[in-house]
Every structure is written in C-alpha cells, then in structure tokens.
Design goal:
This protein is an alpha+beta fold. Helix content is 38%, strand content 27%. The protein folds into 2 domains: 5-70 and 99-178 and 269-347, FAD/NAD(P)-binding domain (3-Layer(bba) Sandwich), CATH 3.50.50; 181-267 and 355-386, D-Amino Acid Oxidase, Chain A, domain 2 (2-Layer Sandwich). The structure holds flavin-adenine dinucleotide (FAD) and 3,4-dihydroxybenzoic acid (DHB). 3,4-dihydroxybenzoic acid is lined by residues 45-47, 199, 210, 212, 220, 293-296.
C-alpha cells in the first residue's frame, strides 16, 4: 500500500488531521490499535474553543455540533463559598466556548471519514513507523492476522501519550519536561440536568470540585481525589455526597443526583516533549504534551497542533516548500507552553494541595481576590480560557 500521510491514532487529533488533509487533497490512512467502540467509550473533554469549532467546520464535520453544542459566555469561580462569575464574552470582546463532548467530536469525525470512503484500520496491532529519518518512511502493522506495510511521505504520530510514536524517537533526540500533581480527578457522568447553566469551578477546604455538562440533560461532575484512589472504591452516592459538601449550600441543594453512566479517575500532570518533529515523523496532541484538565485545554491543544501541521503539509504538497513543516514544532510549542502555563496556574489556584501551609492558602485567597477586584486579572484568565489565537 502507499499513501501520502500515515496517521497513527484515531483520537480527535488523528481524525481531525485526516479529514483536513483529505479536504486539502492529501491522501491519508488512519491506523488505531483500539476498536471504534472502545475509542467512543472513553469519556474525556467537554469544552471547545472557537478555534476547534472552526477546524470542525473546515473539516466538513460540524453539522451536528452546530445543532447540539451549548455556547457558554462565562463560568463561576467559587472560593470557600464566595462566588465570582468570569464574564468570558464581556472580557474578551465577544468570544465564548462551546460545550460539546469529545465523544461526539470523535463520532462526527469518524462518520465524516466513513462517508468519504477513506481508509482506516482499527484494531491494528504492532503498528510501527520506520525510516522516518530518511526520505522514504513506511509503517508496518498487523490487521486481521495479516502483516501490512504502507509506504508514505510522512507519518503523523497522533497516538497519545502511551503510543508508539514517542517511543520510536531516537534516544537523546527528545527532551521531556514534566510535573506530576499529588491528586487526581474522580469524574461522574449522569443523565441528570446540570446544577447550573454555566460551569462551576470550586476551590473548597475539602478539595476542588467542577460542575460541568454535556447537554441540558447530561451532567459531568468532578471532585479532586487522592492520586492513589481507585474509582471502583467509590459509589455514586458517595460521589454525590462529596460533591455537595464542596459547593455552597444553595447550589448543593439544587444538585440533581442519579445513577452514574461512568465513573473514572484521571491523574493530573503537565508534560511537554520537545521538539515535535523528527525527520518525516511529526508528533501531535497528547503524543507530545499533557496538561492537567483544569481549564479544558487538552483537546483544544491537540486541535491547534493539527492546524499548524496541516498548514505545513499543505504548503509542502502545493509548492514543495518545507518552511511550514520546518516551523511546525516551534509554532506548536509556543502555543503549547502558553496553555501549559495556564493549566498549571488554574490547577494551582483551584486545588487543595496536601502539603499546603496557611501561607499557601492565603496566597490562593489573594489570587481569587485579585480576580474579583481586578478586571485586568480576570481578562488574562478569560483570554486564556477561550483560547489564545493560533
Ligand atoms: P487520544 O485521544 O489519546 O488518541 C490517541 C489514539 O491513539 C487512541 O485512539 C489510541 O487507541 C491510539 N493509539 C495509542 N497507541 C497506539 C499504537 N501503539 N498504535 C496505534 N494506535 C495507538 N481534556 C480536556 O480538555 N478536558 C477533560 O476533561 C479531559 N479529560 C481527560 C480524561 C482522561 C482520562 C484523559 C486520558 C484525557 C483527558 N483529557 C481531557 C485530555 C483530552 O482528552 C486529550 O488531550 C485528547 O484526547 C487528545 O487527543 P489525541 O487525539 O491527541 O489523543
Ligand atoms: C470539563 C473538563 C475540564 O477539564 C474543564 O476544565 C471543564 C469541563 C468536562 O469534562 O466537562
């Protein structure tokens, strides 16, 4: 087999890149080690920046999103029961975010790919890129008991943090910067109406809580937990009790509880690997970086990587220019570090750290107070939350 770009990974970054390349006239094949059902069963991000929405439109996969997404013009920040609304729309000159789940994004992109009859291999095992340091890379894998080899011009490593593409980078060619946080998020998804029509981020003595949603009838809630805890040790009832304890009384009383459709724990960490290009292999999305989820940047960063990579590959195929692919890593990393800073900061001011001193707690309170009293401070938060320009 031969194609122009082999995309390893069928998460949002791989599927979005595949669709955008196709619309730019560039052939591609998507490979994933998991089944479609498994990929669609993972409950992850829920808040989209306008940049991501624009890319879905460019990919020709935005019709359902345009009908079903919930635009959000602000969110509540709560510190020890004191509520402050961040007016995203007002502070950013009319920008907002859109609530639409990663599962739906992935489904829409898979449907678009299928409608165009583009080639994908799910449940592909032993996927491996070769010779990407030369001019004729290829990818091997096994599928349905048969060995396959695809010759290509480029390989896009969109296979997440535990994928193969990070692993095949030669020793010493990549530097990784990492910060691990001493807690995780326990998430619960339930078919109950959200407690509020906007998101609520709460810093409470007992730990962080987030009230989010997927639709007007489906809620997504999180509570900070120990990194060592296991979701199996929690019941939905225990979750609801803990969530309500971390919210102001009048909000807690309005929480509608129900059975859990899903409950899982996500560890929190910040990771950046540099550079993101190794000859004809590019890393994009979680394959190159992880942010703690506070501020919902993970999926949106994957989208901006895809945007820069698309521009580079489009120029290469249009007129042979390598300027765009040469600049890919640097352009993407500039935005990544800004989002890393924001996600780290938002995590730092909203969570309860196990070794926190009285001094640290007062500093958190002062940060909150500055957001309440300074329009400049709130504007910085709002500009980052809606997404920095590409
Ligand atoms: P992924 O979605 O991870 O996709 C990678 C794909 O590559 C997968 O389908 C995988 O099966 C495939 N793959 C892996 N290895 C191989 C291999 N060797 N061969 C072939 N295929 C392979 N972000 C937010 O903004 N908000 C959130 O609330 C949030 N919650 C999260 C919860 C969890 C548990 C996790 C892990 C992430 C969460 N994120 C969240 C981050 C966000 O979901 C990711 O940033 C986003 O999924 C990145 O997309 P991606 O396509 O780069 O990677
Ligand atoms: C969600 C996750 C986040 O990390 C966030 O900041 C907002 C919303 C969510 O899963 O809905």
């Amino acid at each position: 087999m031969r194609t122009q770009v082999v995309i390893i990974g069928s998460g949002p970054s791989g599927l979005l890149l595949g669709q955008l390349l196709y619309r730019a006239g560039i052939d591609n094949i998507v490979l994933d080690r998991s089944s479609k059902e498994h990929i669609l069963g993972r409950i992850r991000a829920g808040v989209l920046e306008e940049g991501m929405v624009g890319l879905m439109e460019q990919a020709g996969a935005a019709a359902r999103m345009q009908r079903e997404n919930l635009p959000h013009d602000g969110f509540d920040l709560i510190f020890d029961d004191e509520v402050h609304r961040i007016d995203l729309f007002g502070l950013t000159g009319g920008k907002r975010v859109h609530v639409y789940g990663q599962t739906e994004i992935t489904q829409d992109l898979m449907d678009a790919r299928e409608a165009e009859g583009l080639q994908s291999f799910y449940e592909a095992s032993d996927v491996r890129p070769h010779d990407f340091d030369g001019s004729r890379p290829y990818v091997t894998f096994e599928h349905d008991g048969q060995d396959h080899r695809i010759e290509c011009d480029f390989v896009a490593g969109c296979d997440g943090f535990h994928g193969i593409c990070r692993q095949v980078v030669p020793d010493g060619a990549m530097e990784t910067f990492e910060k691990v946080y001493p807690f995780g998020w326990l998430g619960l998804l339930s078919d109950v109406p959200p407690v509020h029509d906007e998101l609520i981020y709460a810093n409470h003595r007992r730990g962080f809580a987030l009230c989010s949603m997927r639709s007007k009838t489906r809620s997504r809630y999180y509570v900070q937990c120990l990194a060592s805890e296991r979701a199996e040790d929690w019941t939905a009832d225990a979750f609801w009790d803990e969530l309500r304890r971390r919210l102001p009384e009048e909000t807690a009383e309005r929480v509608t509880t129900g059975p859990a459709l899903e409950m899982s724990i996500a560890p929190l960490r910040s990771v950046v690997s540099e550079p993101m290009r190794f000859g004809r292999l590019f890393l994009a999305g979680d394959a190159a970086h992880i942010v703690p989820p506070t501020g919902a940047k993970g999926l949106n960063l994957a989208a901006s990587d895809v945007h820069y990579l698309l521009e580079g590959l489009r120029d290469y195929y249009a007129d042979g220019s390598e300027a765009g692919i040469d600049a890919y890593s640097q352009r993407a990393l500039h935005r990544i570090w800004n989002a890393e800073r924001f996600s780290w900061w938002m995590t730092s001011v909203t969570h309860r750290f196990p070794d926190m001193s009285g001094f640290d707690r007062h500093i958190q309170r002062a940060e909150f107070s500055q957001l309440v009293h300074s329009k400049a401070a709130s504007t910085v938060l709002a500009e980052n939350y809606v997404g920095l320009p590409y």
